[in-house]
Specification:
By secondary structure, this protein is α+β, with helices and mostly antiparallel strands. It has helices at 6-16, 18-23, 56-75, 148-151, and strands at residues 26-30, 35-39, 46-48, 53-54, 84-91, 101-110, 114-122, 131-138. It is built from four helices and eight strands; from the N terminus they run ααββββαββββα. Strand 1 and strand 2 form a beta hairpin.
Length: 157
């Protein structure tokens, strides 16, 4: 089997995180500047049944997961276990019902021990954000690529 691309690795990582998988998150775009993760609208993420507005917790999950992927992108081709230290979200307005939410995120600074990320959640236009976020992720120094075991029949390297 050939080497896995960064996009394939990020897709695999996203699909192997249970809550991301259950919420149907997908990696929509990846560029040098950052990446976009999609949270599809569904009944399971509705916070207010009368209006159909998405629960803020679903957007928090989207932003945390998207920032984590941006951190992985910034460390590639190396990998490190990077748990979230802090995630701050400023909600600007509610998401419109029956529309997917997108997160555009980027990791903008790396140190030996921490990676910093930021992003926005939006629907139709990045210039009309639903929320802004900033997040910090701890670098554990465990450079083990988690998808190695998939490439080599169950034995990680």
């Amino acid at each position: 089997m050939g080497e896995m691309t960064l996009e394939e690795g990020l897709q695999l990582f996203l699909s192997s995180v249970k809550h991301s998988m259950l919420l149907g998150m997908t990696l929509d775009d990846i560029s040098e500047d950052g990446l976009v993760v999609r949270l599809p609208y569904s009944e399971q993420i509705i916070g207010n049944p009368e209006t159909g507005v998405i629960h803020g917790g679903a957007i928090t999950s989207l932003m945390d997961q998207a920032c984590g992927l941006a951190v992985a992108q910034s460390l590639a081709p190396d990998f490190d276990i990077t748990p979230t230290i802090d995630l701050r979200i400023d909600y600007m307005r509610p998401a419109e019902p029956h529309k997917d939410v997108l997160a555009y995120v980027t990791a903008y600074r790396k140190t030996k021990s921490v990676v910093f990320a930021r992003g926005i959640a939006y629907q139709d236009n990045r210039n009309q954000p639903i929320a802004h976020c900033v997040a910090n992720f701890m670098r554990m120094g465990l450079s083990k690529v988690p998808w190695q075991e998939f490439k080599h029949g169950g034995q990680g390297e």
